[in-house]
Amino acid sequence: MRNQQATQLLFELSQEGRRSTRLPACDVPVTSREELIPGSALADNTLPLPALAEPDIIRHFTNLSTLNMSIDTHFYPLGSCTMKYNAKRNERLANLPGLAHVHPYQPDETVQGLLQLLFELQQMLQEISGLPGVSLQPAAGAHGELTALMVAASYFRDHAEHRTKVLSPDSAHGTNPASAQMAGFETISVKSNSQGLVDLDDLEAKLDDQVAVFMITNPNTLGLFEQQVATIADRVHSRGGLIYLDGANMNAILGITRPGDFGADMMHFNPHKTFSGPHGGGGPGAGPICVSEKLAPYLPVPVVREQEGRFYLENEREKSIGKVRSFFGNVGVLIRAYCYIRTHGPDGLRRVAENAVLNANYLLKQIQPLLPVPHGDRCMHEFVASAEPLVKSKELKQPALDLAKRLLDYGFHAPTIYFPLTVHEAMMIEPSETESKDTMDHFVKTLETILQEPAETLREAPHETPIRRPDEVKAARTPILKWLPEKLDAPKTSD
Questions:
Q1: What is the pLDDT confidence band of residue 495, given thresholds at 50, 70 and 90?
Q2: pLDDT reported for residue 490
Q3: At what angle are helices 437-451 and 399-409 packed, to 10 degrees?
Q4: Cβ(137)–Cβ(329) under 8 Å?
Q5: CA within 13 Å, CB half, 378
Q6: Phi then psi for 311, rounded to 5 degrees?
Q7: Could you give the domains of the chain?
Q8: Closest Cα partner for 319 from 337, 336, 340, 294?
Q9: DSSP states along 270-333
Q10: pTM, 2 dp
Q11: How many CA atoms, within 13 angstroms, populate the side-chain half-sphere of residue 342?
């Protein structure tokens, strides 16, 4: 049973006179703040900080933590996000003092072990992607997209080509067109056909000598492998353009096929998805990119190099786009990715993909009798169901949202909803390879139970969470970023 009282706001728990620490009397001459700090830098009033004892603070934050969902405590069928379980050995290894306590400004000769690790990670990503040039610098997947597009822009400038357009499918993740815009390109959407794949006729109609890059996700966000990807690559290349592969969904093809082999010129990895890095919390993240040989000279610096058994950071590259990070990537996340890859090896990575695809197809077959899956009986790592029939059967205006909210009451994180936009009332579901058959069966049974509940129960869900249905539009447009107690003369703390 959760301590409900302890989850109140700290200001609500505050009691005048309580302290978490008591300092002994000062044993040096006392100097007033005014003598040490200019008056202009001092606050007019004592800050209204809450007054609490240490047990109050510990209970508050411990009980708050139990309100969170996490991959360690809940099933996350969060399509497009690959919320797999993070092996704790990777955490332990990344936190070894010889790795965790390294400073980014240390001389190369003092961090040879770490540089060797990063060099080997570059080689692993080369092999997995089929692309020879690697940068570990980007701090996230979207940052990797932006960096790769900046590399492409620099390549075209260097070859005196003025290309202004980036194409992407209408089912693409929203970061694709956003990254292209930030890199200075015009973005154009390419339609999907009735099978959920790229419409080749629409692509052909929009291909011209102004197209710099076609950004494609494969497998795509509908969980389908673009079987015509080689044809797409040939058509784009014949017009002088480049193929960018959104590598967020590599979990389905690890060790089975390589983007470089089916025509990609550049791609990014999401280590927090594919290689079991930490999820959520706003970071830190990583988004390593891999590029073809002709694009490699334009990669950001630094790049880890090896010469006669010595490893070093190469910072001088004539055609490089320069730095995209203040330090060398997010090394802690990269170490976790390295450990994950070394643990599994080539055969293990292939089994990861096979089991991810197996789990997704098993779940698809179980859910199909409950909700339609518009794009076929098979998928790769994920699939997109539709809650649209509930608009009529239960008179729900937004059934995907209602189902997602109700799942929270049963202890399941909600699937991704209303994406991609090509499926009405979309529910994108991805179990990943780390979930058991028992967990997936329990999820299906719960969904079946929810679908039998009265419409009113769904409309008012969730019923068990502290916050139920916030006004998300208002929160996004007019966020409240600062909270103050109602009384500004809140209990004062000692100086």
A1: very low
A2: 43
A3: 120
A4: yes
A5: 4
A6: -105, 140
A7: 1-67+468-495 (no CATH), 88-344 (3.40.640.10), 348-467 (3.90.1150.10)
A8: 294
A9: -HHHHT-----TT------EEE-TTTGGGPPSPEEEEETTEEEEE---TT----SSSSSS-HHH
A10: 0.90
A11: 15
Cβ atoms of 328 and 104 within 8 Å: the answer is yes
3 state SS of 179: helix
Nearest CA to 78 out of 489, 341, 492, 407 is that of 407
CA 354 to mean position of chain CA atoms: 22
Whole-angstrom Cα distance, residue 365 to residue 377?
Answer: 7
| CB-based contacts of 195, cutoff 8 Å, min separation 6 | 224, 375, 376
* Token digits of residue 493: 């703390």
Confidence at residue 492, expressed as pLDDT on a 0 to 100 scale: 45
268: its two tokens: 């990014």
In the 8-state DSSP scheme, what is residue 479? -
Burial class of residue 272, CB neighbours in 10 A (0-12, 13-18, 19+): buried
Cα atoms in the Cβ-side hemisphere of radius 13 Å centred on 193: 12
Calculate Rg over the CA atoms of the chain: 26
Write the pLDDT tens digit of every residue in 94-128: 999 999 999 988 999 999 999 999 999 999 999 99
Distances in Å between the alpha carbon of 5 and those of 31, 56, 64? 41, 10, 11
Alpha carbon distance 31, 9 (integer Å): 35
Sheet holding 211-217, edge to edge: 133-135, 289-291, 266-269, 242-247, 211-217, 165-169, 186-190
Note the Cα 184 to chain centre separation in Å.
23
How far is Cα 190 from Cα 180, in angstroms, rounded to an integer?
A: 14
What does the pLDDT look like over 198-254, one tens digit per residue? 999 999 999 999 999 999 999 999 999 999 999 999 999 999 999 999 988 799 999
Per the DSSP assignment, residues forming a β-bridge with 429 are 383
